[in-house]
Amino acid sequence: MDRKWLPLTIVLGAAGVAVVTASFWPDDEKPPLPQTLCHGALSRQTAELIDDGKGGEVSTEEWERKGESTDHAVFKGCQVLRANTDSDHPRGVYTLIIEDNRNDPHYKPKNSVPLGPGLTGWALPDKAEANLPASCAARMGSTAPNITVTLMAPSGEGEEKDKDLVDRDAAIRNNATVVQEAATNLAKKYDCEA
Prior knowledge:
Elements: H1 6-24, E1 36-37, E2 42-43, H2 44-47, E3 58-64, E4 75-82, E5 91-101, E6 113-114, E7 120-123, E8 127-131, H3 136-139, E9 146-152, H4 168-189
Antiparallel strand pairs: 1-2, 3-4, 4-5, 5-9, 6-7, 7-8, 8-9
């Protein structure tokens, strides 16, 4: 071998060893993102349906509270968040609440749209509600007649309104899809499907 090629051969050999070593060396990988959110009620795909138009990775902040004698026996909630590009603090997009319901499950607010066959509930552009099947309450430890999943999105008034990012019908469809999936997944999780 000609001596003038020796330094190049050494550099390429060292680079090859570095590449092989790096491919076998464990990375400081982040754990995979969970595929279910909000106490197992939502798939990541459905959680991402409702968007404020500013993008960002979806995450959730979940909480749970066990009730006392006059309080809710079942109260779980989560806030669906999206990452901000200009801040370390995520912004809230909507809230999902799972709780006892002692009210009439057939109540429907004015101008709301029914969820459709199989579920009792309704949807509006800023709120939606679905009732789990009647047998779910006892399986979830409640003495209430019903368990309700409620979605609350920003009202779209005042500072929160961003010039109708999503039209009314699309907002209603998205809200309905989120509470339908949440109710269906929770019924499966607690083995109380209708």
